[in-house]
Amino acid sequence: MSGDNSFVVVANRLPVDLHTAPDGTRTWTPSPGGLVAALSPVLERQQGCWVGWPGIADEAPEPFRTDAGVLLHPVRLTAADFEGFYEGFSNATLWPLYHDLIVTPVYDRDWWAAYRDVNLRFATEVAEVAAEGATVWVQDYQLQLLPGILRQLRPDLRIGFFLHIPFPGADLFRQLPWREEIIRGLCGADLIGFHLESGARNFLDLARRSGVEIDDAQVGAFPISIDPGSLGTGEPGGVEKLRESLGNPATVILGVDRLDYTKGILQRLLAVEELLESGALDPDQVVLIQIATPSRERIDQYQVARSQVEEAVGRINGRFGSVGHPVVHYLHQSLPKDELRTYYEAADVMLVTPFKDGMNLVAKEYVACHGDGSGALVLSEFAGAAVELHQANLCNPFDLESIKRALATAVTGLAQQPEVMRERMLAMHRQVHEHDVTRWADSFLTALEARR
Ligand code: G6P
């Protein structure tokens, strides 16, 4: 039972989602999130195979090759898998648990059974497509049992695992009724990667406490990054056009996130509202653009987060906008990369204020678009990116006063200390360019190679 792919990436999602319109027309669109953005260039370079779900229940089109030469191998999830494995265990149990209980995780035995089944199914598919001795790179929290299962099915494979979200402290993780199974599943990998040293340490500590044999070299920190080249060049004159369409405000503030309760979108709106209220921001001079990509829309907590955000947008515009000039421009849509680049370039201040985030590639994308040293980044201390981008205007997203301070300091800093701000942006830009996604993938794969 083996295929002919010597490099296989397996992630819950394929880099594209299949959409079927009511008239039966099918289209593929890029799928959301940082994981896909980071791994696509790696797979293209290696001309490898990507095993994943096509983003729609009960569909598994035949494998096909993309224009960039990547073989996509769809895995079918039923509507029941979608509920139990994806919406349930992955996104209503693990997601909130790993993001430090921003909402309360639900522990449901049926969801756990679905998670085990789907991990087994993914493992079986990978075992079929991977060549003898192939390297298999398993991605993220949806597939934590896969390394262990695959190790049993195919002991010849070299298996890496990378977690794209934070790994919680032992006291939180130990809530999970199936904690031992998850740890053993992960330990099937030759190398387990985290963004930060703290995640790696937490994991080593837990594995040892669970009596699993593990050595330090089996675990490592590999902070993920972006491919600055994939951001395109932007439309010539696009920035001027965009600013003009906004009424040429003195300051453009930008937020770009999946609409997720971990991202702190409401808190940042409240911070802006209070600054408008106190007069620290002038509604005639400032515009906030918030792009919120639709995500996991059927899950209760996501619906709550969306209504709170939309209510706040309406209230702020009602209070401080005027006809034809809203203060907050809110898009509940996903935008193509080259359009996004224009927004990044146009933004004087980027607001990235998650309560908790594995890395946050939006922060790095913004910095990558400001090679001229312009702009300012307001960044949560609890985003993994804060370790590398420490020259940002850091804030505590749980403290409204701290977000307000960081935003106000960024705005006044740009006006009063442009040289200082420029130096800070340039330092961050160098960091992102020198530590790009290729370097991330190479360092992980080199460490994986050294393991066997
Ligand atoms: C985060 C996760 C990814 C996930 C993405 C989009 O970046 O780390 O694993 O694919 O969000 O979420 P979704 O549920 O739409 O796949």
TrEMBL record:
**Domain of life per record:** Bacteria
UniProt EC number = 2.4.1.347
Key words of the record: Glycosyltransferase, Transferase
Top enzyme category: transferase
Against CDD domains, the record matches this protein to: GT20_TPS (cd03788)
Pfam families from the entry? Glyco_transf_20 (PF00982)
Does Phosphoprotein show up as a keyword for this record?
no
> Is this entry keyworded Glycosyltransferase?
yes
Record-linked InterPro entries: Glyco_trans_20
The GO molecular function terms of this record are: alpha,alpha-trehalose-phosphate synthase (UDP-forming) activity
Q: Which reaction does it catalyse?
A: GDP-alpha-D-glucose + D-glucose 6-phosphate = alpha,alpha-trehalose 6-phosphate + GDP + H(+); CDP-alpha-D-glucose + D-glucose 6-phosphate = alpha,alpha-trehalose 6-phosphate + CDP + H(+); ADP-alpha-D-glucose + D-glucose 6-phosphate = alpha,alpha-trehalose 6-phosphate + ADP + H(+); TDP-alpha-D-glucose + D-glucose 6-phosphate = 5-methyl-UDP + alpha,alpha-trehalose 6-phosphate + H(+)
Q: Write out the similarity annotation.
A: Belongs to the glycosyltransferase 20 family.
Per its record, how is this protein called by name?
alpha,alpha-trehalose-phosphate synthase (ADP-forming)
Naturally occurring in which organism (per UniProt): Corynebacterium suedekumii
